[in-house]
């Protein structure tokens, strides 16, 4: 798949790096995994630059802003435009819904919304601590290089390839229609492998899942008009969840509502076979080995920058 070569088309990468890795026990966004201490984010940034992205926007917590700037700004300067945005608990939250007792971030949908003042072009939202693979960036860059003004996109990974050997995971399980558009994405919060089967542990009992389900690993492509809709939905969410200090506003919630209301279509694009992520401390060694393999194959240079 070729790299789009259209200098007129702007495309931003929105890196969601404000999460708190409670199960990992450290700041996994800036932890070193590559042969020379590269973060997972380094590989995504490298893939985005070579796929023709023109801008990178980092969403961070105030506490890690300086270290993220120091780590990534020198690498990206002269290659793409760079912006840093802080996801704070009161950003984009009307005063009547601000609660001094809340400590938990509002979730990925709110993180995305925090970038609305700095993004005017089509953009791709990703997690900072997931490795998505070169092909996924090429796939979505090619999508936006075409005539896609009315469409958004989700890179869909095969469910069987995005599970952890070290415990349960939460995954957005997608369903597409005959034309390749997303019908719905359902967040299943406790997915495990048991006796050769993939099981979702749910209140109603165990549900067996097909290994081939197109799965959201939070790799989304949006037209900039998504921000108005997201703000409207977030305000409704705040009203409905007043007093719930743990409620989170996720991107799939925005996507499902948009599809349901017929406001936008979401094309499901193929993902790389090489997704991997870090949920648990035990994942670290495995991720480092997988990155070494990618370098050995020549997909990435030994020293990225």
TrEMBL record:
Keywords for the protein's UniProt record, in alphabetical order: Transferase
One of the record's GO molecular function terms: transferase activity
Keyword Transferase among UniProt keywords: yes
Gene3D superfamilies recorded: Spore Coat Polysaccharide Biosynthesis Protein SpsA, Chain A (3.90.550.10)
Taxonomy, superkingdom: Bacteria
Span of domain Nucleotidyl transferase: 37-172
Protein name: Nucleotidyl transferase
